[in-house]
Amino acid sequence: MMKLKIINKSTNPLPKYETTQAAGMDIRCNIEAPVSLKPLERKLFPTGLYIELPEGYEAQIRPRSGLALKRGLTVLNTPGTIDADYRGEVGVILINLSSEIQTIEPGERICQMVIAKHEQPEMVEVQELGDTERGAGGFGHSGVK
């Protein structure tokens, strides 16, 4: 099993998976007082977490579906990527897409973090690509029904 080294400089518990088959662990904000977000306002929220990922892994920061549906809050650069060589504090950019002011409370679960394996492929420049049935069909190429 891969091990994630983590420093927790917050008063929150370590991130954890809320169910046995969850892909993402909930991440809490590390703020001392409530912070309000006006409609369409975005802010960077500290977490107090610092991680060391093994080479070949990344951490993806993703929205929590409940916050998105119920309050219109989402992670702005979704998914945010934390590279294995980054050692700074994990920060989360939240944006309020609702029409009302939303308040983030200290220790609130604001996003989820998914750990994923990745590769850096060798680039091979070619003059043409292999054919497929889809070809260059892009956005909406298969219709709506």
Describe this structure in words.
The model has no long low-confidence stretch (mean pLDDT 94). The strands form three sheets. This protein has a four-stranded antiparallel beta sheet. It starts with a strand and ends in a 28-residue tail after the last strand. The protein has a domain of 99 residues: Deoxyuridine 5'-Triphosphate Nucleotidohydrolase, Chain A. The relative contact order is 0.25. It is 5% helix and 38% strand. The longest helix has 7 residues. The protein is built from one helix and ten strands; from the N terminus they run E-E-E-E-E-H-E-E-E-E-E. With 145 residues, the protein is mainly β.
CATH class of the domain at 19-117: Mainly Beta
- Uncertain segments are none
Tell me the radius of gyration.
19 Å
How much of the sequence is in beta strands? 35-45%
Distance between the ends: 42 Å
The major pleated sheet works out as: 4 strands, antiparallel
The count of β-strands is 10
The fourth-level CATH homologous superfamily of the domain at 19-117 is: Deoxyuridine triphosphatase (dUTPase)
Percent range for helical residues?
Answer: under 10%
- Counted by DSSP, the helix tally is 1
Query: In one word, what is the shape?
Result: globular
